[in-house]
């Protein structure tokens, strides 16, 4: 920062607000802190009595906060991300362009913030977002930041920090197991709940088939749904470790890749995820039928966004995987799954 004559100030950055007072008419800010002085500003500054002003000198080594914000915008803007129309005081906002799941490169985000003098804040990784949602904001902290620091930021971030994976409209087949439902002893309550959750994502349940507690029948029903064009299979009726619950073993015997049988999430520990080629297969625990939010609500959006989850993805839910069962549910704006 230095004090210079106003007539020599073109191209420099104001270090403070400059107020304009016209008695009986106006009192307000004529020039904002951080403003880059232009040729046409000099006359007005002189009329305001500013023969000398305090400025930052950009030179060859400094970048103004607004120009630095543009760099941060480029580093953050990935798939289905829209930048704000304007930059305000060196801050740039990021918005979702589609409904989907926000993906944040958390390691690169940490590296960027560790450079210092940079503030880049996001919503949590893997949170469902709606089109138009604010998902991140970024700015540099000083009015002028070292050019080398921004160049280092660009060298660290080779791919965008933020992406939104939009949802796919799956054709879903559902197998509901249990002799008590199959023989009509009780009414199935599972199907409507799962169907309603899928409708939130515009997915179609092509059929819900009932099965006895028989591995062979469960597998036959699953194959029927695949032959009907199902792109996802969901097994309901409750997963358990009881010897008479043959659903988990039937799913495993269908073949394909078993990702996880069990999850560090409450409610939802008895959850199964598998893949038959590109077909996601989920076995749902009984809690989905009565709990407001469960492991199903955490995994479903990611699966519908086309992400192929791994065992690690499921086990990472342990930190934040406890639902507090609030009387009024605020999910996803809460700690569950974060």
From TrEMBL:
Residues 173-305 form the MoaB/Mog domain. GO terms for cellular component: cytosol. Keywords: Magnesium, Metal-binding, Molybdenum, Molybdenum cofactor biosynthesis, Transferase. CDD domains: MoeA_like (cd03522). GO terms for biological process: Mo-molybdopterin cofactor biosynthetic process. Its cofactor is Mg(2+). Its EC number is 2.10.1.1. Pfam families: MoCF_biosynth (PF00994). It catalyses: adenylyl-molybdopterin + molybdate = Mo-molybdopterin + AMP + H(+). InterPro entries: MoaB/Mog-like_dom_sf, MoaB/Mog_dom, MoeA-like. It is an enzyme of class 2 (transferase). Gene3D superfamilies: MoaB/Mog-like domain. Catalyzes the insertion of molybdate into adenylated molybdopterin with the concomitant release of AMP. Belongs to the MoeA family. This is Molybdopterin molybdenumtransferase. It comes from Fusobacterium ulcerans 12-1B. The lineage of its organism: Bacteria, Fusobacteriati, Fusobacteriota, Fusobacteriia, Fusobacteriales.
């Amino acid at each position: 920062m230095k004090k210079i004559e106003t007539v020599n100030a073109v191209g420099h950055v104001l270090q403070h607000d400059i107020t304009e007072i016209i008695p009986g008419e106006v009192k307000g800010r004529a020039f904002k802190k951080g403003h880059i002085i232009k040729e046409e500003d000099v006359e007005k500054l002189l009329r305001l009595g500013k023969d000398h002003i305090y400025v930052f000198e950009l030179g060859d080594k400094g970048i103004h906060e607004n120009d630095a914000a543009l760099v941060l915008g480029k580093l953050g803007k990935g798939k289905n991300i829209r930048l704000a129309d304007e930059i305000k005081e060196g801050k740039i906002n990021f918005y979702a362009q589609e409904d989907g799941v926000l993906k944040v490169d958390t390691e690169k985000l940490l590296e960027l913030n560790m450079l210092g003098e940079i503030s880049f804040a996001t919503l949590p990784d893997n949170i469902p977002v709606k089109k138009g949602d604010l998902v991140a904001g970024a700015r540099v902290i000083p009015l002028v930041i070292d050019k080398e620091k921004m160049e280092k930021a660009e060298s660290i971030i080779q791919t965008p920090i933020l992406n939104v994976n939009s949802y796919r409209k799956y054709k879903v087949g559902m197998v509901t197991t249990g002799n008590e439902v199959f023989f009509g002893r009780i009414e199935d309550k599972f199907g409507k709940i799962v169907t309603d959750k899928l409708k939130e994502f515009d997915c179609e349940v092509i059929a819900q088939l009932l099965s006895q507690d028989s591995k062979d029948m469960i597998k036959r029903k699953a194959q029927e749904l695949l032959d009907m064009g199902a792109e996802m299979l969901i097994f309901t009726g409750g997963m358990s470790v009881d010897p008479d619950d043959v659903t988990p073993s039937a799913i495993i015997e269908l073949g394909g890749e078993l990702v996880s049988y069990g999850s560090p999430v409450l409610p939802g520990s008895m959850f199964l995820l598998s893949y038959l080629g590109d077909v996601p297969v989920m076995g749902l625990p009984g809690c989905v039928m009565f709990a407001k939010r469960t492991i199903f609500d955490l995994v479903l959006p990611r699966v519908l966004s086309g992400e192929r989850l791994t065992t690690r993805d499921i086990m990472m839910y342990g930190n934040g995987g406890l639902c507090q069962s609030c009387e009024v549910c605020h999910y996803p704006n809460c700690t569950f799954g974060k």
